[in-house]
Design goal:
The chain has seven helices and 16 strands. By secondary structure, it is of the alpha+beta class. It has a five-stranded antiparallel sheet. It has a four-stranded antiparallel sheet with strand order 6-7-14-11, with helices on one face.
């Protein structure tokens, strides 16, 4: 039983949107539930706070997506997994209607998102659409994609869509019923977690991947996706004999995926629902892969001082097929420093 839902920024913690489903009273405290949530986050470092905690008799559940916080409150002990899944579906529902979920898009589509929060218990964009009357305000971007810059500079033909091509509402409005393209985007997203020592030797490695689908197709056509024929899944005993070049430890599929051809020809087929969903989620542990980046650290003592200089070096191990035209963008390095430090 959810009492309140907040959508706020991670940095300034300012509330962008709030929906109160039933009155929530905090005994013996003049602070609101959001002030109690912010006070808890100030006490505990952001990396160690759990997605579900209890403070002043209030149960808080939250997720972080796109630099925003999606927070739900309750005075009863609701199943944490259920509420976290509910908040995740709320995020994807907002993404289906707005195209991209950022601070600017939430402010521009506050009326639309408020209508969604009123009918949020219907966890399907297709079912919520008849109850929503507001039109989405899409957020444009004037920045050029690095792939487009290379194409213009060197005259190389590129058939790759820009990274922002799928950043548009999946729920069609009255303005784009006839002009929107009939297309589908399939993205392979992998998260590599590696534990190394100071010399760069690998201690543990894990790969978590997902085949993400964003559907803009008209009607309900059947889509087939062919995977590697040498793919093996250790949890499926019937999958044998394809070789050992691609071995997955765990693999889960969306409920709409048909696996009738998967065991024989490694083909998955599905009738994609409108919006965005993960067709396949997999993981690999202790794989012998070459790291795309190699990170090493060096420490140097400063004479006549207790301070220490820490130097981080990052080497790229990826060789581009076009030599120097192998470009990468949006690299972010996050480091945890001591309380007293300087950069």
């Amino acid at each position: 039983m959810i009492y309140e839902i907040y959508i706020a920024t991670c940095t300034t913690r300012s509330v962008l949107l709030r929906k109160n489903y039933r009155p929530l009273h905090v005994d013996g405290s003049s602070q609101s539930s959001w002030e109690i949530f912010c006070r808890k986050r100030q006490k505990i470092t952001e990396g160690s706070i759990a997605p579900h905690f209890v403070e002043d008799g209030i149960h808080f559940y939250y997720i972080r997506r796109g630099g925003l916080l999606f927070v739900a409150t309750s005075v009863k002990d609701v199943c944490a997994t259920t509420v976290i899944e509910f908040l995740s579906r709320l995020y994807y529902m907002a993404k289906d209607f707005c195209g991209i979920v950022t601070e600017e898009s939430v402010k521009a589509n506050s009326l639309l998102l408020h209508e969604i929060l009123c009918d949020v218990m219907i966890v399907s964009s297709e079912k919520v659409k008849p109850y929503v009357t507001s039109e989405a305000i899409t957020m444009g971007s004037c920045a050029s994609d690095p792939e487009e810059l290379v194409t213009r500079l060197f005259g190389i033909e590129s058939h790759r869509a820009p990274a922002t091509a799928a950043h548009r509402p999946a729920v069609r409005t009255s303005l784009d019923q006839g002009g929107q393209k009939n297309e589908i985007f399939v993205d392979l997203i992998e998260r590599l977690t590696v534990v190394t020592d100071a010399k760069g030797n690998i201690g543990r490695m894990q790969v978590q991947g997902t085949i993400n689908v964003k559907n803009f197709l008209l009607g309900h056509p059947k889509v087939k996706v062919a995977l590697n024929e040498d793919l093996q899944i250790s949890s499926r005993d019937q999958v044998k004999g394809f070789g050992s070049s691609a071995l997955l430890d765990r693999c889960n599929f969306h409920q709409c995926v048909d696996l009738s051809e998967f065991d024989t020809s490694r083909i998955i087929s599905f009738l994609p629902p409108p919006g965005e969903f993960s067709a396949m989620v997999y993981s690999l542990n202790e794989v012998g892969l070459n790291l795309p980046l190699r990170v090493t650290f060096f420490t140097r003592d400063i004479p006549n001082s207790r301070d220490v200089n820490v130097i981080m070096s990052v080497y790229c191990n990826i060789l581009g097929t076009i030599g120097l035209l192998m470009l990468s963008s949006h690299f972010v390095f996050r480091l945890q420093y001591p309380v007293y430090h300087s950069t």
